[in-house]
Structures are given as structure tokens and as C-alpha cells.
């Protein structure tokens, strides 16, 4: 017999006592039994709303730029530099005591226009003379070091280094007279060279461990033959030769001491021309430096090619703790006890920036 759908059955539980009377139990309960098919459950877990993904914003970190608040006037023998006190064009005025040009301080201030003035000779303020194609270029480093607020150790102004340059047309010839040989001006230069020294290297980028080939030379024009020497060299992170940190790697009138200090393979190369001298320097970086740039500044000397080498004009390298001095077959033997006096020219030559980076990391099977 089929079950009636939807019939509600009431079930009563009774208990008879010992006398046969019906005894009602405390907690009397009723149960409802639903006969027939059960309605499907329509409850569902609540839907968690999707979190909207963040919108892609075109954000770029602002990079420092060279301020447009520096003006330069290049004279025949002097340079005039004007710097706005609002150096960064942000409304914050810099302190004159924090600004220098190659170590030279501000000489005057125009309070009305809020302009700081530098005026010096081209040979002052550690200016670096470079020869670029048909131009002579004097480069100065304008450096601003922010000072802390009075009574506090903090500052809210960025530091800056701005390169200031004066360009002059290079003379095509230098008049020569034997009676005035000591008054002539010679042009010294430094160049990055290819591994085989065949021509100038087109890139200034190196990795740690690379060998940097450098050639120092002197332009002789209508001059008697000259022999060139590198007297001393320092490396800095900015064009200012007195900036810190600085690394002196050629000292003592021509000794390349990098190998002695760091056990590197840096050395002078055998001379192939009198008016050129070449040396190799292992690429390096300044520890904790803020820039991969390296500027090299050298004092370069030239003597008559017929004059012998001496203690003040030499080229020596260190190898395994020993000193090796480069001799020229046309020169007399070196006599360290005698300093041969004679005509000598001296100049400053620079190179940079040379960019040095860490070696790219490699993994097994990947590069």
C-alpha cells in the first residue's frame, strides 16, 4: 500500500503505572514525521565578492637632472660662473658656504637677484684641460654639499655635482723657435685604446676584472722630437681631482703602484713611440660609491727625446713585489743618484667618465 503524501502522524508515548493507569511523563514531546519526498536544499555558501585589482598607474621615480640655474661666461683667460641660490628650482635657497667650484669658494653674491658668483683663471679651481677633436675644453666641477639646519643633524636639500665647461678652438700649429723653446705650449692627452692598441676604443664601459688600456701622448706639431712620461695619476668619481674618495695609482714620478697595492696586473707597456706611453689598469670600483663613473687625471711630462731617463722622468711597474723600470734603447742607463737637469714641459690630461660595472651573474646552464 502506497504512502499518503503529506499525512501528518502524531505519535504519543504513554506509560502505564503498576495499577494500569495512564501516567503522563514529564517532558512530553511530539514528533512530526513528514511522509513523502524531501524538498531539495536551496541554501548555498555566500559568494565572496572579488577584490578589484589595483589599477596600473604609470609611475616613474623622478631622476635628478642638471639644473638650468647655472650660467657660464668663458673669457680668454678667465671663467665667470653664475649660480642661482634656488639651484634646484624648488624654492629652497642654498647656502653659499656649501657651494664650491673645484675647491674654490664663492667670490661674490648678488643679493637682489639671488645669484652666487665665481670668477677665476682657467688654470685655477682644478680645471681639467681636454683635447676633443678641434677643440680645447676646460672642465670644472661645481659641487654643492648641503649643510644641516642650525641646531639639528638633518637637511632637506639634495647634493649636486654640475660639470661646467669652456670650449676654445684648438690652434692648428704652434710656432717654434729654438731660442723660445721653454715658452711653448704643448697639448697632452689620455685615450682609451682597444686591446691591440690599434685605435681608440669606441666604448667607455668596462666590467670588474677587465683591463683598461690607456695611452698618454703629447702633440709635437713643428717641434723637436719629445719623449712623454706619466708623472702621477689619480682616480675620482667626479671631475674634481681633489674630491673624495680618490685613488692615486701612479706616484713617485712614474711608478704604477696599483699592482703593489692590490696585486693586480696593472703595468706600463714597452714604448713604441717617443711621444706616446701606454699602460694597463685593471678596472675597479670605489667601495660604497654612489656612482659607477671614474675620472682619471694625470700629470704628464715631456722632455727632449735625446735626453736620458732619470729618477724624475721614468716609467716603472711592480710585479710580484719587484720594480721593473722601462728603459729606452736610445737613452742612457738610469742613474738613480743623478738627476739630469734639462728642458721639460708639464701638463694635465684627463679621461672620463669611465663606467665600471659588476660582472653579470651567471648560473649553470643559464646566462
UniProtKB/TrEMBL annotation:
Molecular function GO terms recorded: acrosin binding; structural constituent of egg coat
Secretion signal, residue range per the UniProt entry: 1-24
Keyword Transmembrane: yes
InterPro entries: ZP-C, ZP-C_dom, ZP-N, ZP_chr, ZP_dom
Recorded topology in the membrane: Single-pass type I membrane protein
Major location category of this protein: secreted
Keywords tagged on the record: Cell membrane, Cleavage on pair of basic residues, Disulfide bond, Extracellular matrix, Glycoprotein, Membrane, Secreted, Signal, Transmembrane, Transmembrane helix
Gene Ontology BP terms: binding of sperm to zona pellucida; egg coat formation; positive regulation of acrosome reaction
Residue span(s) of domain ZP: 73-323
Domain notes: The ZP domain is involved in the polymerization of the ZP proteins to form the zona pellucida.
Free-text function comment from the UniProt entry: Component of the zona pellucida, an extracellular matrix surrounding oocytes which mediates sperm binding, induction of the acrosome reaction and prevents post-fertilization polyspermy. The zona pellucida is composed of 3 to 4 glycoproteins, ZP1, ZP2, ZP3, and ZP4. ZP3 is essential for sperm binding and zona matrix formation.
Protein name: Zona pellucida sperm-binding protein 3
Originating species: Sinocyclocheilus rhinocerous
